[in-house]
């Protein structure tokens, strides 16, 4: 028998906590860079580096999620093929 996997959804509270945590971290980093006792080009470099790090992290998370979802689709297709073969197979049929 085929069992369809339960699609897991994150709760609104978890989503809100993730957004709030990201916002606090970005704000704290921006304030830290702004208040840093350094030249403007050093602060600019740090700000660009932080933005690059954030976009890289989002891209990496998306790639990992996409690869996982593709693996689930392939395994479902393979499972459906096996189930079809088993359903069509008659062990009492003469060869």
Topology of this protein?
Layout: H1 12-34, H2 40-88
Largest sheet: none
Number of strands: 0
Poorly predicted parts: none
Query: Which oligomeric state applies?
Result: single chain
End-to-end CA span:
26 Å
Average pLDDT, to the nearest integer? Answer: 84
Question: How much strand?
Answer: under 5%
Question: Helix content range of the residues, please?
Answer: over 70%
Cα-atom Rg, whole angstroms? Answer: 25 Å
Number of helices: 2
Instruction: Note the overall shape.
Output: elongated
- What is the structural class? mainly alpha
Could you spell the SSE succession in H and E letters?
HH
Write a compact overview of the structure shown.
The chain is mainly α and 95 residues long. The protein is built from two helices and no strands. Helix 1 (12-34) runs antiparallel to helix 2.
Structural summary, described in words:
The structure is a single chain. By secondary structure, the chain is mainly α. Helix content is 76%, strand content 0%. The protein is built from two helices and no strands. The radius of gyration is 25 Å and the shape is elongated.
Features:
membrane, YiaAB two helix domain-containing protein, 76% helix
